[in-house]
């Protein structure tokens, strides 16, 4: 029973400590969703060629799994 209480205490403390970061993320994503349109994202992606970065990221992930 004591180990269950310790597990419960640790779980609740992790939730309480992470809550401010979750709320900050929710507010920031809400602001981005309100003010950044899909067209703006598409223009930005065309400028920096997101496909190239996407392929690089996928390649990095795949190469990490091979090691």
Q: Please, could you describe this protein's structure?
A:
The chain is an all-alpha fold. It folds into two domains: 1-35; 37-67. Helices cover 93% and strands 0% of the residues. It has helices spanning 2-35, 38-48, 50-66. Helix 2 (38-48) packs across helix 3.
Topology:
Blueprint: H1 2-35, H2 38-48, H3 50-66
Keyword list:
67 residues, mainly alpha, 93% helix
Short structural description:
With 67 residues, the protein is mainly alpha-helical.
Q: Biggest β-sheet, characterized? A: none
The helix count comes to 3
Unreliable sequence segments: none
- Structural class determined from secondary elements: mainly alpha
What is the H-and-E element order? HHH
* Overall pLDDT: 84
Which assembly state applies to the chains in this document?
A: single chain
Radius of gyration: 20 Å
Overall geometry: flat
Total count of domains: 2
User: Strand percentage, roughly?
Assistant: under 5%
Distance from first to last alpha carbon: 42 Å
Percent range of helical residues:
over 70%
- Total number of beta strands: 0
């Amino acid at each position: 029973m004591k180990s269950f209480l310790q597990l419960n205490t640790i779980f609740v403390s992790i939730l309480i400590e992470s809550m401010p970061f979750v709320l900050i993320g929710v507010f920031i994503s809400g602001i981005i969703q309100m003010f950044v349109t899909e067209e703006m994202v598409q223009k930005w992606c065309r400028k920096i060629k997101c496909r190239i970065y996407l392929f690089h990221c996928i390649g990095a992930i795949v190469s990490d799994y091979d090691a």
